[in-house]
Specification:
The chain is mostly helical and 313 residues long. It has 19 helices and no strands. Among the domains are: 104 residues; 82 residues.
Length: 313
């Protein structure tokens, strides 16, 4: 991937006329956009900074599509305030530009800023769409603000985006994180189609309220009804939390096997839940094995291991 990135950057920094001919009359900025996408995917910060400097040198930074890709690049490399600088420097802020900055803050857990720019966008007369609503609902879920969640739900209903699969799923997830399982279930039941986000959001809501039986029943229903949808690490970690709380070792082992089959066993969220499960069930060796097998560990994994040590002592 590094070789490909180097080649792309070198091509993007060629003489504009030569590059224009080499790309069979493809506009220069489109080639740069493609390079930015590649660097964003590979999280190549140093190469991206070089390309950004070249964009400024060529005077192309005012092109809305380039602004969008630069905001997204800095978002994915965890530099949201650099994304904000690009946004502020954009002379023409298209709906895509607004969507990018709102998403950038949401993805980097700057929830208040994400919602602030969501409000600013509306004040500028730009309506949210199916890309912007999920960013706003995600931020609201992190803040666990039920009044704000209800306002966003009403707004989605008013603009008819509540029937959209991704917006509807994000609303279920938002209500689940706000502890309002009644509204989460109502939105879920009214959805004509569901995806892993809507199922996971509702399962998490029940887990958070301690309604373990309902969470497990919903998980089993999900596996039967959505066999082609596939689980994610959030679903697995939520159900493992139930197993750990109820010391359901055998079921926990089955879910461990499912996480291995779906390659989510290396997820820090799943690993933390597995360590907690095995520790609470007294299977210390299994907990240690899970910890050792994950190469990139987060704070949750270390906390789970410290909890295991305390239990053993």
């Amino acid at each position: 991937m590094q070789k490909e990135d180097d080649t792309s950057v070198n091509q993007a920094m060629m003489d504009p006329l030569q590059l224009h001919m080499n790309q069979q009359q493809q506009p220069l900025y489109r080639n740069i956009c493609n390079t930015l996408l590649s660097l964003t995917y590979s999280r190549s910060l140093s190469k991206g900074l070089q390309l950004h400097a070249h964009i400024i040198k060529l005077g192309l930074q005012s092109i809305p599509l380039l602004s969008h890709h630069l905001i997204n690049f800095y978002s994915k490399t965890h530099l949201p305030y650099s994304s904000l600088q690009i946004f502020n420097d954009s002379s023409h802020k298209s709906p895509t530009t607004w969507s990018s900055i709102i998403s950038s803050f949401a993805q980097n857990d700057l929830s208040l800023l994400s919602l602030h720019f969501f409000q600013l966008m509306i004040r500028h007369g730009l309506p949210p769409d199916d890309h912007i609503f999920p960013s706003a609902t995600k931020s609201c879920g992190i803040l666990a603000s039920l009044p704000l969640a209800q306002s966003l739900h009403c707004f989605a209903y008013k603009t008819a985006y509540h029937v959209d699969l991704f917006v509807g799923s994000s609303i279920v997830d938002m209500y689940g994180k706000c502890g309002d399982i009644y509204n989460a279930r109502n939105v879920f039941d009214e959805m004509p189609y569901r995806n892993v986000v809507s199922w996971s959001g509702l399962i998490y809501g029940y887990v958070q309220l301690g309604e373990d039986d309902e969470a497990l029943m919903l998980f089993k229903r999900f596996l039967v009804e959505e066999e082609n949808e596939g689980v994610n690490d959030f679903t697995l970690s939520s159900v493992l939390r139930v197993c750990g709380g109820s010391t359901l070792l055998q079921m926990g082992k089955q879910i461990h096997g499912l996480s291995f089959k779906t390659s989510f066993d290396s997820s820090c969220f799943v690993a933390s839940s597995l360590i907690s499960l095995y520790s609470k069930c007294g299977v210390v060796e299994e907990a240690y094995d899970v910890f050792e097998e994950v190469t990139v560990r987060n704070l949750g994994m270390w906390n789970a291991m410290l909890y295991r040590v305390i239990l053993c002592s």
